[in-house]
Amino acid sequence: MGKSAVQVHLTLSQSLRLCGENETNADCCLKPLCVLETLQVSACVGSTPLASLLIQATINARLFPANASSDNKTVFPNQVYQPLGICPCDLTSRACDARCCCDQDCSNEELKLFASHCLPGPYGGQVSPAPDYQCSMQSAENSPDWFPFLCVTSPLENNPYLGLFYQGDTIAPRPGPSFRMPLLSAPVPPSIYIQGSPVVTSDDKYFTIPQMVLGRCINGAPVAFLQNFKVECVTLFRSCPTGPPIKTPQKDLITEVLNGQGGIIMVNLTDEDASDKSLFLSRGQVNFTSETLVCENVTLALDYKFYWKGNGITSISLTRTVGTIVLNGSLALTTRYSAVFLNGESVAEPNSGNPGYQVGRPVIAGILDNNTELMQRTLINIWKPVGDGLCSSASVKPVVFGENSTSGCLLPIRQRNITQCDLLRETVADLQAGLTTATYVAQRGNPDLTSMTDWVNISFVTRNVSTATGAAAGVCGDIPSHQHIRVWSLTTSLVDGIPQREIQALEISYSMSTWALDCGGGDVSLCENLEESQLFPITSSVTFVDIPINTGPPKTRFQINFTEYDCTRNDVCWPELAFPFTRYYTGEPYSQSLAKGMILVFMFLAAAILGTPWRQIRQAWHNA
After folding, report:
1. Residue 591: is its pLDDT beyond 70?
2. Contact 276, 321 (CB under 8 A)
3. Across the strands, what pairs with 224?
4. Which of 394, 405, 585, 623 supports an S-S bond with 409, CB 3.0-4.6 Å?
């Protein structure tokens, strides 16, 4: 098993059956402990032992019952009318249990010994006791005064204890948690594709592209219809790749896919050579060996375009970016995978809610096209630093509704830059302005591109830039180093219990800072050498503000402290006790509600007069 491990197989060549008394066959076990042997495996170099392993095998003989098992089955009564545990106190088989009067193993003489001390309740066999509400269960001495009016007369077969038994059925146990990777179920060939359904190949398999799942790149992730994605996967190599997806033969990429309309389409493959491989390779390498490897035709990117119409796919084009990599030690390779669904030449962009925004979905922005008067969708972005954290290599990420965030990157500044403050401010301002190119933001998560009522103007706060002085001292002020996005949203309604939020306003402002080269601490190279640089941060942040809903005039101190009489905050509302007798009650005619109210008052008075207090007063009066 390689250069550092050895796998040892031990095979038993005899039967594990126990030998009979007079059996002479050697292929059986003479004793119940059939095998007890110890084996030593040694690893030697020449005649010198370096390591040893002791293996002990203990195997017992198989024991079979002398008589075949009986086929007698225990017949249980119907549990609908008779519970399964008819005598729970019968604990000993074929013996009489003391005080268990339902034990069928007890004789009449044994039952006479403890007939007056039987175990009570369901444990003693009384699995269907008569309930307390039965009229026959209360005697005249201890029954309350209301019992004759409210007791129930019903047969004993109608017993609430029988509801504890569910037709004798069994419930299959739920499987416990497992750390194994779940197996994908066999795909069902689709009649038509709908949004989110997996794309299937002609041999009834999932069409897969590497995707990001739970923070990890999964090579065999199915592609969902009308769901775009773009991922980056980082892989560390010490030798040239040999398997997919980094090294995939051309015939495996040109696959046949079901189009969702009863036909089959084939992937059109186009290969491109990477002009700049620095976007895919890490900057540093760790040299474990002086051997240099040249890896040719390495897949650096796979970009799929799915053209769709209605509920089907019309064509699929794949652009594969390949390149030659020189490997000297270990190297981190960043491969890119993307899939985009196009209807004609337009990208199928998902909404961020219906109708209002949902938390975790991107905020939709727009740019008005003056020629067509249509809104072109775009995103509002903030910084997303990668690698060394420099702004030159940083990417951006969209602003997500309801999630506050702060990020940034580092900008290297030299002595010659700090002497040109106007140019430095303009450079930083252009970097910050590139994050947001839109001028409108959508109020709701499903905006109409043709209606301006669904869009709100983005408010840009003008920067107040003063005249720069002090450039000779290596100091520049009023640098727009921080961009802050503030979003005001309002909950307008509920749809199926989900709050629907709308954006009321969006403001983009800048915070100014002063940049100066730090030449202290004995390091004066920054101020003397014009090519030395110092890193300055450029940041961006987003904050969401919820606009409270106006619920009316403020409450008084009495309403805040004394909530006993607040009908909106208590289940019992004493001020509305006589509400059915008022003219505001419209559930039934006023005459009927008044008549029913009088009947209730009469019954209350009758119960008070005929109840226990008045009976005691009459008895005391009679005795006196």
Report:
1. yes
2. no
3. 198
4. 394
pLDDT digits (tens, 9 = 90+) for 269-289: 888 888 777 667 764 444 444
The tokens of 488 are what? 């005001």
pLDDT at 418 over 80: no
Q: Is the peptide bond before 589 cis (omega within 30 degrees of 0)?
A: no
124 closest CA partner among 97, 163, 95: 97
CA dist 239 to 44, 326, 391, Å?
Answer: 31, 10, 32
Sequence-ordered list of residues with C-beta below 8 angstroms from that of 313, at least 6 positions apart, any chain: 193, 199, 225, 257, 259, 260, 265, 306, 307
The string of pLDDT tens digits covering residues 52-109 is: 887 878 887 776 654 444 455 556 555 555 555 678 788 887 788 888 888 888 888 8
The CB-based long-range contact list for 124-127 (8 Å cut-off, 24+ gap) reads 124/88, 124/89, 124/99, 124/100, 125/86, 125/87, 125/88, 125/89, 125/100, 125/101, 127/83, 127/85, 127/86, 127/88, 127/161
Contact 406, 543 (CB under 8 A): no
Convert 422-456 into a string of H (helix), E (strand) and C (coil). HHHHHHHHHHHHCCCCCCEEECCCCCCCCCHHHEE
pTM of the model: 0.45
What phi and psi, each to the nearest 5 degrees, are found at residue 423? -65, -35
Give which of 445, 451, 446 is closest to 368, Cα–Cα.
451
What is the DSSP secondary structure assignment for residue 624, as one 8-state letter?
Answer: -
DSSP state of 156: T
CB of 508 closer than 8 Å to CB of 485: yes
Which pLDDT score, from 0 to 100, does residue 485 have?
92
Nearest-5° Cα angle at 519, 513 to 524: 150
